[in-house]
Amino acid sequence: MMITPWLEIFGQIGIAAALLVLGLISRRLGSATRAKPQFIGFFIAAALLLTSAVVRALNLIFGLIPLGEVPVSVGWVMLYNGLPALGITLGVIFSWHYWSWLLAERD
User: Fold this and answer.
1) How far is residue 8's CA from residue 42's CA, in Å, rounded to a whole number?
2) Is 73 helix (H, G, I), strand (E, B) or coil?
3) Contacting residues for 41 by C-beta, under 8 A, at least 6 apart
4) Engineered SS bond to 45: which of 9, 37, 73, 91, CB 3.0-4.6 Å?
5) What is the pLDDT of residues 11-31, one digit of tens each?
6) Alpha-carbon gap, residue 74 to 61, rounded angstroms
7) What's the gap between Cα 107 and its chain centre?
8) Cα distance between residue 62 and residue 68, in whole Å
9) What is the spatial distance between Cα 22 and Cα 90, in angstroms, rounded to a whole number?
10) pTM
């Protein structure tokens, strides 16, 4: 059995953990500054990545679609490739929106 697909799964779990940490830090900062709760996007992005990691792990364990074979179902492609892409995109958007004040020039 190849080790590469498992590394992809662990990579997604690692990115989801980083998004969870960003969400927790953002929630704490938001409560201190009394900002609107916009940190929910980090948790949604992490959930999308974790869902995709579970789907990939189930595929490897049960062999739903053999490795190297192209899936024909649009739903399967969205679960397998679309969810991590959407999760990372949401994470980048919310990070930029929530933490952009760190990059702003202050005089």
Assistant:
1) 20
2) coil
3) 23, 90, 91, 93, 94
4) 91
5) 999 999 999 999 999 888 887
6) 21
7) 35
8) 15
9) 13
10) 0.84
